[in-house]
Amino acid sequence: MSATAAALAHADDLADFVAASPSSFHAAAEVARRLTDVGFTALDDGNLERAETLFRNALKRSPNDGDALGGLGLVELRRERFAEARDLLQRASRRGTG
pLDDT-derived band of residue 98, with 50, 70 and 90 as boundaries? Predict the structure, then answer.
């Protein structure tokens, strides 16, 4: 199993845990962090579609996560969608990490 596949499987396990106990803020934040980590792996691999999906899923769990916002901004930058990239990266810089 590749590192990306293993990370995705683990993120899916955590997502199931959060679905079973949605009141757990810390669990949601942990899932968001792991989704963001895998998103950056997908971005490094050049898989922009997968990276976007992972960053957006992280933001569903933690809407102000600076790392996920920044990752999504980098996706848009690579797609040469400069206005969207700028907006996301500005939001990320105001939020900081996590």
Answer: very low
Distance, CA of 93 to CA of 71 (rounded, Å) = 11
| 3 state SS of 49 | helix
The full length of the chain comes to: 98
- Predicted confidence (pLDDT) at residue 32 exceeds the cutoff of 60: yes
How many CA atoms, within 13 angstroms, populate the side-chain half-sphere of residue 40? Answer: 10
CA angle 19, 20, 23 (to 5 degrees): 80
DSSP SS3 for 98: coil
Distances in Å between the alpha carbon of 43 and those of 13, 23, 27, 73, 89?
22, 30, 24, 11, 15
Q: Model pTM? A: 0.75
User: What does the mean pLDDT of the chain come to?
Assistant: 86
Gyration radius (Cα) of the chain, Å: 13
